[in-house]
Design brief:
two-stranded antiparallel sheet, 2 domains, mainly alpha, single chain, elongated, Cytochrome Bc1 Complex, Chain D, domain 2, 408 residues
Length: 408
Amino acid sequence: MKRSAPILLSNMLVTGILLAGVAAAGSAFGAEGDSGARGALRAALATPQEIAEGKRVAEASCASCHGLAGVGKSKDTPNIAGQRPGYLYQELRVYQVGGRGNTPMNNAVKFLSDDALVKVSAYYANLEPALPAASVGTKTGPAKLDPLSAGKAAASGCAGCHGETGITSTPGMPNLSGLDPKYVVAAVKAYQHGQRKDDMMKTLVSAVTDAELDNIALYYALQKPGKAKTPAPGDQAAGKSAAVACAGCHGDGGVSTGTAPSLAGQDAQYFIAAMKSYKDGSRSESAMKAPAASVDEGTIKNLAAYYANQMPQQPTVRKPLTTEEMAQRCDRCHGVNGNSTDLHVPALAAQRSEYLERVMRAYQKGERRSTAMSAMLDGVSEADIEGLAAHYARQKARAVVFLPLPSK
């Protein structure tokens, strides 16, 4: 293996940087070989004098927003102290050619020479990285729970009636096991808005937010399903025969594959009460009005017994990744805990959370273009973005170390 260019420690008098578009003979940093180069970039060394010249560029063009210490002065201005120098240089070039639209950054770097860009990148890369956000009081607060954990916490108040995992042992209380989360959300909203008449439920769910409701429904959907632990008197065989007419919407055995709720494993007393509500109009779902009117009380009781004894199945719901699991995917490129060891890839550790949120949204909207980043953020929710940003803002930033490899 060839000996690589001796790029060394940031936070000392010499900083490694990858150059682009600078001729070897005229390089501000005398080139030390190109074994570490990628594409148009090549490894070089910055001298103390060149870093000092970079500081003067920073004072004139960058410090008003990023400070001389490289710590952003506003919430969505990134910290750039200790950032990977090749990445800084490449980003400055993008701004210089208008690749980020018309922003203050375009104007700040528009007329800087390539030599100045290289030196100011070396200067900021040489600085001590910013402290984790929790240490400097910027936006983080306590780590947010992932949706599943948040749903479990929010559902704790429901356990007395519906069981800890949605399997009820209280007659008259619906089993939530095996229900599609969209149905659970719609049913609770119907109680909130008075479309379903139940004063106790309306009071209990009145303060539940949409986000909490989504998490609760997700939590129950991902629990192992089971039949209600309540009595179910009635003729199951007769109920099975009557259920043929219901299968088109509610599925064979009461396991729905559409928008109608699954009935398998449902508490019999609750089922009977719901059917009576459809019959007398206190539940207003038009699709159930005619079917409920066509069956007598005996048939309803038999249907309840049949469905209560069918085993529910877990709906098809993808378990969301936790913030830590998502961060592990990001770390593949951005380094452990966001401390990149690739000069082309930005370090995320101790970065401002507001800035990280803004950039991730920009990739999602196509305002920033990256095939890899667009793929990684596809389907990532707003809550996930906030969680990831807060996660990296809390990480300790570490200066990257580059060492020469001995020849074999």
